[in-house]
Amino acid sequence: MTLTENLPAAAIEAALAHGPNGTEVNSRVPFHMTDWLHVPTERYYSREFFELEKQKLWTHVWQMAAREEEIPQAGDFVEYEIVGQSLLIVRQTDGSVKALHNACRHRATELGKGCGRFPGNQIVCPFHGWRWRTDGSISHVFGREGFDAATVNPDDIRLREAKCETWGGHVWVNLDLSAPPLREALFPAADILERNGVQRMKAKWWKEAIINCNWKLAQEAFFEGWHVKQTHPQLYTYVDEPDSETNLQNTEYTPFVNGHGRFQSGDAREGYGGKPDFLQAARLNWQGQDAMTLERDITVFESVAGGMDTRDPAYTKKAIDALFDFWKGAGVPAPDRTPEVLRMWGGDIHLFPNYLMLPMYANSLAYRVRPYNDDPDWCRFEVWSLTTYPEGHDNGRLEIAGTFDKDDADHWGLIPRQDFANLERMQRGIKNQSLTHTTLSELWEVTISNMHQELDRRLAVEY
Question: A Gene Ontology molecular-function term (predicted)?
Answer without folding.
Answer: 2 iron, 2 sulfur cluster binding
